[in-house]
Amino acid sequence: MLKQFTRRLICLCFGIAITGAVFSLPARAAETDPADFLRALADDAIAVLSDDHLDQTGRAQGFRQVLRRGFDIPAVSRFVLGRYWRAASRVEKEEFVQLFEDYMVAVYGGRLGRDSGKFLTVTSQRADGIDGAIVSSNIKRPDGPVIMLDWRLKQGDHGWQVVDIMAEGMSLALAQRSEFASVIRANGGKLSSLLTKLRQKTQTLALNQGTLRQTNADASTQ
Fold first, then answer.
1. What's the rounded Cα separation, in Å, for the pair 189 and 96?
2. pTM recorded for the entire structure
3. What single DSSP character describes residue 32?
4. Is the pLDDT of residue 19 over 50?
């Protein structure tokens, strides 16, 4: 139940805010404050998700590019792997970061709604440590209840980046870490079991969608 709830929330959050910022995100993120950063993501998402010229492959490619530019994938990867990150070899860490990115693209990249960004309203922001911020928002869809989202951001060399999304007080990164830890524990504490499962999952979805390999190759040239 937790896994299904987490995936529904992640799909909703990603559908709202990340696909649209493929080309404009880096410069705009570096120049704006946290709330403006999030508003820009939502505005860009509306424009791109409403573009009838984009097919599923183009949408998945944009999804991967924005994950790399707008989200701190290495930092999120370290967090969701938890204590198993410290015990992993350099090769395992590198493979996990890539597989985690592939997993996010394969699982969530094809589930974005055209009009999701229209329902996001930024309500406030506050500092989170020296170089961080939390931007609060809500989603009010015509066919559902209001959902409260807090976006945890960190500012680095490339501007603001998302490191977690908290939906109704639940950390999506923490929920993902719990899911991954369960897989590892169920297989004798071996990280290789999670790597194998992620590899199989993304390969299966890639075959079904016909997008993962192409978008990975295309994004690597950006």
1. 15
2. 0.75
3. S
4. no
**Rounded Cα–Cα distance for residues 102 and 19 (Å):** 15
Q: Are 39 and 55 in contact (CB under 8 A)?
A: no
CB under 8 Å to 90, separation ≥6 — which residues? Answer: none
Structural domain spans, the chain: 2-213
DSSP 83-146: HHHHHS-HHHHHHHHHHHHHHHHHHHTT---TTGGGGEEEEEEEE-SSSEEEEEEEE--TTS--
161 vs 78, which has greater pLDDT? Answer: 78
Enumerate residues 6+ apart whose C-beta is below 8 A from 24.
40, 44
CA distances from 32 to 61, 81, 141, 161, 186 (A): 25, 31, 27, 12, 44
Residue from 17, 9, 6 nearest 44 by CA: 17
pLDDT greater than 60 at residue 20:
no
- Tell me the torsion sign for CA atoms 114, 180, 101, 132: positive
Looking at residue 50, its pLDDT comes to 59
User: Which of the two residues, 102 and 49, has the higher pLDDT score?
Assistant: 102
Report in angstroms the alpha-carbon separations of 59 from 13, 108, 110, 174.
16, 11, 8, 27
Strands laid side by side in the 170-171 sheet: 120-127, 132-139, 147-156, 159-167, 170-171
Task: State the CATH architecture for 2-213.
Answer: Roll (3.10)
Residue 25 has pLDDT above 50, yes or no: no
- Residue keyed to tokens 């993120």: 29
